[in-house]
Amino acid sequence: MKLNDRTHAPAGRQLASVAAAVLMLSLLAGCGPKAQKSGQALVSVDGEEITTSQLNDELQRSGVNASQQQALSKQLLESLVDRQLLLNEATKEKVDREPKVVQAIERAKAMIIAQAYLQKKIGMPAKPTKAEVQAYFDQHPEQFGGRKQLDMRQLVVANSDISDELKKLMDNAKSLDEVASWMDQHRISYVPNDVSRSSVDLPQPLVSRLLSAPKGQLFVIREGDRSVLVAVTAIKDTPVDLATGTPQIEQYLMNSRSKDAANAEVARLRASAKVEYLNKAAGEAPAAPAPAPAPAKQDGAIARGVEGLK
Fold first, then answer.
1. I need a surface site. Which of 28, 29, 40, 228 has the fewest CB within 10 A?
2. What is the mean pLDDT of residues 224-252?
3. At 41, phi and psi to the nearest 5?
4. Is the distance from CB of 254 to CB of 128 less than 8 angstroms?
């Protein structure tokens, strides 16, 4: 599995996700006996209180730095007011009793409780040692010390416009300009594009082909109902040293350990539980899909292409 750089979502997007989650939890609470809210009341919405505990939970879930939380408090509080208004109306109209809503609530409840169990059972995975980080760094040079930046020119064309004549031209053309000129003459629509991609962001088979190809060689990459004619214009070394890569490696290894521990716990529970499939069809393995027909043998630029250039 490839370790990719991760970026944080904007605060607005995070708040929207939190709002949806808390609305679901509010609906869950509404399905049973009314729970007493803890904390000092901040706002009353048609008699329903919003408390400091709710606001603090919002702040914690928002994922923003402590220095930013005070500035977001007002926005979060207004979000809680809006949510309570919606919840009040939904309760009046008995939306929480509709079959699809009840089913969604039960699913969400089961997922929340199961996740809480795993967090309690597994806990925080151990931080990787320096030796483990070094080993991962050494075993994945394409992600770190050997990272490359590939500058490419592209011509994007619909598959339906790729005729045998155009395929032949692609195989023999010396440059993208030659192909573009031919398509202009034959009134074939295409979209030119200049892109730059890190070797970390592309499928490894494609990277290997692009790096080993003779200078100026053209590739056709299939992407659904379109094809991308690619020519690499420059390859630059963009190495990442161990110090820079360490936080990413540590997070990746910790996530992997959590996933492995969760899978092990589920396997343990399955081994000790009595699982009966009461509906025979539900317990049967899905039928294997029919094998896809073997692709016709292709030569030239299309044969060199690899799906997955994004």
1. 40
2. 92
3. -70, 135
4. yes
The answer for residues whose C-beta is within 8 angstroms of residue 138's C-beta and 6 or more apart is none
Tell me the domain boundaries of the chain: 11-122, 146-240+299-304
The whole-number average pLDDT for the span 240-265 is 95
Specify the fold of 146-240+299-304. Answer: Chitinase A; domain 3 (3.10.50)
Encode 124-135: b = buried (16+ Cβ within 10 Å), e = exposed.
eeeebeeeebee
Cβ count near 44 (within 10 Å): 11
Residue 125 has pLDDT above 80, yes or no: yes
List, for residues 166-211, the tens digit of each pLDDT value.
888 888 888 899 999 999 999 999 999 999 989 888 888 888 888 8
- Tell me what pLDDT residue 288 has: 53
Give me the half-sphere count of Cα atoms (radius 13 Å) on the Cβ side of residue 140.
23
Q: Average pLDDT for residues 296-300, to the nearest whole number?
A: 41
pLDDT on residue 224: 86
